[in-house]
Amino acid sequence: MDYSYLDSGVLINAFRGVSEISLKATQVLDDSTRTFATSLFVKLETQPKATYNKQLAEVEFYETFFDAVTIWATSLNTIVKIADRIAKVYGLAAMDALHIAAAISINANEFVTTEKTTKPMHRVTEISVVSIAV
């Protein structure tokens, strides 16, 4: 099965729904040909702040996505080992390395992000990094 791992920015922008990038994020989420993968890193970057600020519609939006996820990257030791290697090879920031490593650890086919193609994560060759940045 082909898996799409979405960066946190894709979910955040899809919820906000006010820009061109939001429209692209929504199209990704609405694509019935995609099967979604994620990790607790994405959940940690999206839900706590929305929960703290009592943004109930936003929390519900994220919960709906997480409930629909087919595969979760859960092997922390494997993820950290991969993240350490790719951060060193490609010059990634820690969180970006962890997200991409999580996607790699479950053999996702693509990593969808809102980061521009000039960012270091686009140097990674172990997974297809797809930007919806405008």
Distance between the termini: 29 Å
Percent of sequence in beta strands: 5-15%
Radius of gyration: 14 Å
> Any guess at the CATH architecture?
3-Layer(aba) Sandwich
Task: Tell me, rounded to a whole number, the average pLDDT.
Answer: 96
Derived structural class: alpha/beta
Oligomer category: single chain
The domain tally reads: 1
Order of helices and strands: EHHEHHEHHEE
CATH superfamily: 5'-nuclease
Strand order of the largest sheet: 3-2-1-4-5
CATH fold-level label: Rossmann fold
Count of β-strands: 5
What would you say this structure looks like, in words?
This protein is an alpha/beta fold and 134 residues long. The protein has one domain (4-131): 5'-nuclease (Rossmann fold). It contains six helices and five strands. Strands 3-2-1-4-5 form a five-stranded parallel β-sheet. Helix 1 crosses helix 2 (20-30). The model has no long low-confidence stretch (mean pLDDT 96). Residues 5-114 form the PIN domain. InterPro entries: PIN-like_dom_sf, PIN_dom.
Question: Helices and strands in order, then pairings?
Answer:
Blueprint: E1 4-6, H1 8-16, H2 20-30, E2 36-39, H3 40-52, H4 56-68, E3 71-73, H5 76-90, H6 94-105, E4 110-113, E5 128-131
Parallel strand pairs: 1-2, 1-4, 2-3, 4-5
Search tags:
five-stranded parallel beta sheet, 134 residues, alpha/beta, Rossmann fold, 6 helices, PIN_dom, Nucleic acid-binding protein, PIN-like_dom_sf
Summarize the structure.
It contains six helices and five strands; from the N terminus they run βααβααβααββ.
